[in-house]
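hey can u check if this looks right to u? its 330 residues, i copy pasted from the old doc so theres a chance i mangled smth
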Amino acid sequence: MIIARIPLRISLGGGGTDLFHWYKKYNSFLITGAINKYIYLTISKRNLTKNYWLSYSKIENLKNIKKIKHSIIKKILEKYYKNKNLEIHTISEVPSNSGLGSSGSLAVGLIQTLLFQLNKKNISPKYLAEEACKIEMELNKKKSGKQDQYAGAYGGMIKLNINKEGNTKVKRLKISKKKIEELQRNLFLIYIKNRRYAYQVLNKQTNLIRTKTSIVDIMKKIQILGRKSCKIFEKGIIDDYGFILDEHWNLKKKVGKFMTNPIIDKLYDKLKKNGATGGKIIGAGGGGFLLTFVPKKNHSKFRKFLKKQNISVLDWKFHFKGSEIIFFDE
């Protein structure tokens, strides 16, 4: 049996520029941060019953790999492990389709555990991230990005530079421990009970990028904001981040009506009236988690509002390890 733990992530700046149809024309820069909420993945051999047993939000028990319904698991098994004697369980600490990169983390972790099962060697985060990207891009007809997989493989707070050929350079964000703690305290992950399917949103966004000049202009501004976010983090000017988030969100909403809805817009306005300086939906858009920045001086007012409105907030911190094998027993 092998158990892997793979971190989820929050997008910190430049999100959306990691899409294939964007970076192949304009390059990409973004920053992302892994958090201490995880996908747990367990695999074990089923030597007595030669079949695939899969447990995620559904259960599959079958002999034919081609009949597996979970597209990512199916694609990875076809590439790395075709023996009919495997049991796979996945557990997520957050709801699926909530914008924290769960599919990318799952792909990274499954590739890692299967390769470890085969050769008992640790695989580099670069290889894991790129293999996971290839799987998802092939499944989604190149309408998915690279952020989730790299965050899951590397962990920590990282900067990604992607050139037009898709080559990705990874660097750690240069930010002090004190400033990381300050950022964590001031960022609130608010759960919106309106999950969405990222592929559907990204599909619409990709089509707009390819056909509308006005959307290209918006995405260029979002990429600039990603670099601005990086600068204020590395200079330690943390309170400025809320205003960048606000600008980012106002731009993102202009990409299409599918990015938000009246409920989200109404909540966002109330959050700002009660101490937040900015925020944005994490992930593709349309629902999931709303990342909100609140300066320390406004915490008391903000928390009182959350409690009064019975709003769910995720307790989290940044996590500085990527996908890792936490248990192995032959």
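The domain at 177-314 is CATH 3.30.70.890 (Alpha-Beta Plaits).
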